[in-house]
Amino acid sequence: MALFIYKVKNDVGRTLVGIAEAENVKEVKRQFHVPDHFFISARAYNSRHLARIRLKLDDLLMFNNRLSCLVEAGVPILQALSILWRQSEHHDVQIIVSYMREELEEGASLWEVFSAFPAAFPPIYLALINVAEVGAGMANILKKLSQYLEDQKKFYSRLSRATMYPAFVLGFALLVLIGLFVFIVPTFEKVILRLHGELPFLSKVLFGISNLLCNPYFDGAVVICVIIALFLWRFLSKIEAYKYMLDYWKIKAPLLKNVLYPLSVARFTRSLSLLLGSGVPLVTAVEVCNTTINNSWLQKAVEDIRQNLLDGGSLYDAFKITKAFPFMVVEMIGIGETGGKLQQLLEMASAYLEEEADYALTKYLTYLEPLMIIAVGAIVLFVLLGIYLPIFSIQSVLRTL
To answer: I need a labelling partner for 334 at 20 to 30 A (CA). Which of 20, 127, 184, 374 fits?
Structure first.
C-alpha cells in the first residue's frame, strides 16, 4: 500500500486536499465515488514529507480552537476531524487532518497520529496530547493549549513590535537617502561645477559620498560584501560555540537584556506551568519546556536544571545553582515548591516578566521615535546645506559683478 495525495470538490464547490492509502490512483478514485464529493486528481506522495509539513502559529491556533470546540461539545474525535477537514481553508491542515482520520480508523493512538507531524506540532503540544489521551481529559487539555498558543502569539507580537517599527523607519529613511544621493545630488553637482563655483567643505563631502554611491565598482563591492557576510553568518550560526556566544550576548546586551531576557524566561516558566498543571512529571516537563527556548545559553542552563533534578535535587536548588534566572523568579519557585503552589506561582512569574518586558519595550520605543526623527532630520539638513551653500556663494559672487 502506498500514500496518495488527492483533490476532490465537495457539494458546495470547495476544493479539498487529503491523503489516502491505496494500491493505485484508481482505488483512490473508487474511495471517493460518493454523491457529495467529485474526484479531481491523485498522485503518489512520499511519506517522509509528512514530517516536514509546517503550520504557522495562526493556523495551529485556529486548528486547535476548532478541535477544542468540537470535543467540548461532545463530538467524537473521528467525526470532529471529518468536520475540520471540510471546514479548513488551509491545504496543509487538510492533509494533516485527513491522515489523522485514516490512521485513527486503523487503530492508531491519538498521540501517534499527532507525532507524525513534528514540524507542525511543537513538543509541548505532543506532550499534552499524550497526557490527555492517558486520562487528563481531552477537552480540558485542548482549552489549555488554546490559551498557551494565544500567549505564544502575544510573545511573538511583542518581539515584532520591538523590531518592526524601527526597521520600517530606518528602511524607508535609507531608501530616501539613497534616492537623494543617487538622483538629486549629482544633478546639482553638475550645475554647480558648470558655474565654476567654489565648493565648501560640506559640499565636497556630500558630492564625494554621492560619487561613491554612483560608482558601479563600489556598488558591486558592497553587494559582494553583503553576500559574503550572509554566507559567513549562516556558516557561523551552525557552530555551537559561536551560537552560544551570540545567544549569551543577546541576554546580556544593555538594551536587549531588558526585553529579550524576561520574554524568554517568561516563555519557559509559562510552558512549565502549563505542563505541571496538566500532570506531566517534573523532569519530563523541564525537558519539554527546554525546546520552547530559542536561546542556547538558556537551554544549557535548563539542561543543567534537568540533570540536577535527575540527581535528586530540588527544583529551587537547581534554579539557584544555574544563576541564569532572575532572583525573584527563583525565589517564587522556592516558595511555590515548598507551599505546593508551584504551578500558580510559575504563572504569576510569567505575568510579572511579561509586564517587565512590556514596560522596557514601551520606554525604548518612546525614546527611539524622537531620536530617529532627529537623526533623519540631521542627515536631510546635511544634504540640503551641501547643495545650497555653493548656490548661495555663487549668488553673492554674481551680485558683486
So the answer is: 127
